[in-house]
Amino acid sequence: MEFNEILKSIRKEKGMTQKDVYELLKISPNGYASWEQGRTEPDIKSIKKLCKIFDISADYLLGLEDETGTKL
Predict the structure, then answer these.
(1) Rounded distance, CA 4 to CA 36, Å?
(2) This model's pTM is above 0.85
(3) Cβ-contact 29, 19 below 8 angstroms
């Protein structure tokens, strides 16, 4: 899966809306939506925040490992 698909999937699994996430990140609605649409990708600082918000590893968010921690 691509980053944007993983991001959207995790957000939905956590029962959050796009608004919930962009407000926690303190970014614009369009900025967050562009990540989920695959038009842009977040910087490292935002990736760290996403990991904290979703309580996941960066490797999982980036598609380098599955939900069990197994490297892909």
Answers:
(1) 4
(2) yes
(3) yes
- Which residue from 66, 70, 71 is spatially nearest to 10, judged by alpha carbons? 66
- What band does 3 get if pLDDT is binned at 50, 70 and 90? very high
Residues in the chain: 72
Q: In angstroms, rounded to a whole number, what is the distance separating the alpha carbons of residues 11 and 54? A: 7
Dist CA 29 CA 54 (whole Å) = 18
| 71 compared with 24, residue with greater pLDDT | 24
Residue that is written with structure tokens 């919930």 in the block: 20
Report how far residue 29's alpha carbon sits from residue 3's, in angstroms, rounded to the nearest whole number: 18
What's the rounded Cα separation, in Å, for the pair 42 and 72?
A: 22
